[in-house]
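Sanity check. The docking grid for magnesium ion depends on where the pocket ends up, so I'm generating a full predicted complex first rather than guessing from homology. Inputs follow.
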Amino acid sequence: MRTPSLYSQDDPISAALKPSPTETELERQARLEAEAEAKRISEQIDDDLREERERLKRRKGDVKLLLLGQAESGKSTLQKQFQLMYKPNSLDQERASWTTVIYFNVVHSLKHILSTLDVWEDSLDGADVNYDDSARRTNGSTTPRDESADGPKNNAVQIANLRRRLSPLIATDEQLANRLTGGITVSGSGKGSVYVRSGWQARTIENALGKVRRRPSGEEKKSQEGLVHEHQDPLVQEVGRMLQLCESDIQELWNHPTVKGLMAKRKLKLDEWSEFFLRDIHRVAAPDYIPTTDDILHARVQTMGVAEHTFDVNLHGKTVTWHLYDVGGARGQRHTWVPYFDDANAIIFVAPVSAFDQYLEEDPRTNRIDDSLQLFTQICSNALLKNVHLVLFLNKTDLLKAKLEKGLKVKK
Ligand SMILES: Nc1nc2c(ncn2[C@@H]2O[C@H](COP(=O)(O)OP(=O)(O)OP(=O)(O)O)[C@@H](O)[C@H]2O)c(=O)[nH]1
Ligand SMILES: [Mg+2]
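Predicted complex below; grid placement will be based on this.
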């Protein structure tokens, strides 16, 4: 028996699709199977479209939040705090990849100290190094000698020795930077900055995996999850070993009267994260060091482009998905913000109030508070953002307090 005809005699398409009057039973079976498959695919497409419509409807209730502000203002740090609050497990999963950043922060800070010493060391005489050595005795220096009493000549010899002993560690600066960026550099980004794109944590591990796979010895073992733990990244392991060996040299450099003198005279300016990790070098240089949450919050790596982070936030018994867009704040990165302005619900503008005595890394003539104010004015007057809620987040108040207590004056 033939199935009822689908093919109307009047419709030209139906007429064209009409089976041939000479169709065999085998051909008829094949045709019916093809029709059933086409119907299944068509229904699948209808289902997908329905699901997409539902998803878009759901997304309409989502909150889109932009974190804006100049470089170093603390946007990614704020994002990490959201992550800690709403997705703490995800921070745990990426904990190991922060070791690379922290080691890089330490090595890069040492490199900066030594290159500043290069410039100023010769111009300092004994009287110039006006550092109170009692600080050195109380902050746990492991140095057995009291070099400051020996005068500038001895100081220069000590620094030359430290420079020599630390040079293999300093030489890893570029390799660590490459591990984080995957070899991508951003032009005009200021001195030795390392920019990372969204998802760098997983890529850092992938980069390490690539290196491990190429090694013939097979000494690196895969962990239970089938992934090589970042601690097994040979580079990170090697830097860890070097840090352990150099710990007392790092302490000696960090506590050296010439270094302290340059800092007191503000000829050597260290970023807050440099001081944080150098002060705590004993812990960071320990074998099997794992970054604490506080370490992750202090670690510094610049954001490239825009990184999206999603969190399910429960507000008054209703779960709302938040899309947090963490942007790169350096001048060369700001053009990437605009495509996100269109459907943003809110902006948190992060302004570091402690930056009154600092200048932009990408433009050393511009004061950071001036830049922040200019940027905020531009955001407030942008027509695309006229319906967007704006939160001004005055950040780094702890550093402002510390600077004012030290006697730094705010002046125009
Ligand atoms: N002391 C202190 N440090 C902070 C605070 N907020 C951020 N930081 C530190 O400032 C540094 C820069 O912070 P990030 O969050 O990386 O800055 P960002 O705005 O994301 O910078 P870009 O990605 O370059 O745009 C990090 O080392 C943070 O630990 C704060 O309130 N107090
Ligand atoms: Mg950032």
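Relevant for the grid: Residues 25-60 form the longest helix (36 residues).
Also worth noting: The pocket of magnesium ion (ligand 2) is lined by residues 75-76, 303, 326 (CB under 6 Å).
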